[in-house]
Description:
It is a single chain. The chain has 13 helices and eleven strands. By secondary structure, the chain is of the alpha/beta class. Strand 3 (90-92), helix 4 (96-104) and strand 4 (108-115) form a beta-alpha-beta unit. Helix 8 packs parallel to helix 9 (234-243).
Amino acid sequence: MMEAEENEMKYIDMHCDTVLEWLEQEERGTKPDFVNNALSVDLSKLQKGGCMVQNFALFTNLKKEAVPEKETMKLYDMYCRMLEENRDRVAPVLRYADIEKNAREGKISALLTLEEGDVVFGSLAMLRNYYRMGVRMIALTWNHPNAIGHPNFSMDAFDDYKAADVLQRADTKHGLNAFGIRYVREMERLGILIDVSHLSDAGFWDVVRHTTKPFVASHSNAHGVCPVARNLSDDMILALARRGGVMGLNFCGDFLKLDGTNKSRVEDMVAHIDYIKALAGVDVIGLGSDFDGIQSDLEIEDASQIGKLAQALRHHGYTEEEIEKIFYKNVLRVYQNGLE
């Protein structure tokens, strides 16, 4: 397993929505700059911040187009163009060994994910095609019920899904559908990591029941600190830890502290890490910024500033080994076990 360089803390970020931002820029008539831009993620910021692996999500809103897969294919094209134009800086991850190879060559590893698993025309054949295209992690749902299962605080059920009372409503009844159970089993067979962020609480427990390998919550925090439905309950965190999985700390202010300010502060991130460590141990904690998919007032403004969190953890008494686990080693362990 790779080690951090002396005096430099590497990190893995399990979730960003930057590809969608690039696509929307282009559709507004502006050519995306993959290397230097005003977003939270670009290749220069990733390099400056010490990024080892950045997961790039293809986020598709099922309600945006009559054929959502059309949007997914446009996003995939944008992701591929970023790779093709920057071969000297970044390379894809298709198997665990690619991460080590890219690190030796001084390149950022890009791991392709789907945020919204129901872009498969109802067919596991299309799921297999996504694997062939390089997808290695899939968030089963976003905020709409789909053919796989149900999210928490569905946007289909509430006009104002960000209202505090809605944010706190976890769905403990509606989980994976029959197709969803076949879907997650096929993901495991292929070597695609299951991501339960956004999935309903009932769906989380269905994943536990119907799968055997480690899975992830790529960008979810602790419900015990911030009681919104997007965060994981104590029982869910413990189950994830028992399975050998990992949860990525989400930088969204609304998921860090329920005070209505949407301020994302490092001290609140440390509070979640403290809580999760005391509950389930440090080995279940990772990072999942949700950069370029959140509109919070960010203290860590972009990928170049991840070191602010490492410094805060040092001041809070965390050892270098613990910080390395949180920043990259825990996620590497899951990738080593889960990527064929």
